[in-house]
């Protein structure tokens, strides 16, 4: 899975940033538990540095190309913030319709162009496997920022980092994932990453939006305890992490189909009466009604803090991939 783009001539002693130096980040499947923990140690250091000095020159002179074929607020701006806090610069291409993509340029040609001008390419694309395809054409690291309904590895890392920071541990937790588990790439990645921590996962979704069987089988084969439900109330009282997702409108064939499912679950202060006091509520955002705004002041609502953790994790990943960690 992991394709090395580390220069072949580099002696081992000069490898900085550990196993991630020069690597593409395409799927969480490429990370061992040790890799995850190494990323988190550096993310903690990034947090301390941002709190102490704000911006510093670790990646001075480095350029990141931020190539987004799908909308994004958090992922795109947090990669920009991460690069700039590390003293590097960003080429933003989020309006692909104003780039040569609108003239029919292929993804391989677009990434081959961007690698001439940058040191690392962050790519979001509507097709599953797009980041892996792009990675076959370039020598500079590609970071998958979401490939259709496939994966969103950097989000899963920041989600797990959030759990660690908020609950102090990652082992043996009961995580309940709620909403569009079929189309939500964040839950595909996070559930795979949780396999390293013997988490118990409850999947709560409408029948037609169940977690794909292929992923369920993969997780079961890794020894995870999984259960599927249509209703949240059965599993909520034992939940440590409630991970809410939006119904992914853009993945539906028709508006009627989406409308029939969009309000399947709505978390309100009333829902939370049955939840543990130490539980956290997470959401990759954007939310479109599945968590009522009245929940935001509940100390268990971790979704805004989650975004901030994302900055530190993405700073760590950039520093590691570019060999400066
Ligand atoms: C998610 C995504 O793009 O997959 N957003 C994000 O990156 N924070 C979730 C979503 O769009 O629902």
Can you walk me through this structure?
The protein contains nine helices and nine strands. The protein is 34% helix and 14% strand. β3, α4 and β4 form a beta-alpha-beta unit. α1 packs across α9 and α5 packs across α9. The chain has a five-stranded parallel beta sheet with strand order 7-6-5-8-9, covered by helices on one side. The chain starts with 32 loop residues before the first helix and ends with a helix. The longest helix has 21 residues. With 325 residues, it is an alpha/beta fold. The chain has two domains: 137 residues, Rossmann fold (3-Layer(aba) Sandwich); 155 residues, Rossmann fold (3-Layer(aba) Sandwich). The protein binds N-carbamoyl-L-aspartate. The site of N-carbamoyl-L-aspartate has 11 residues, from α2 and α6. The site of N-carbamoyl-L-aspartate (NCD) has 11 residues, from α2 and α6.
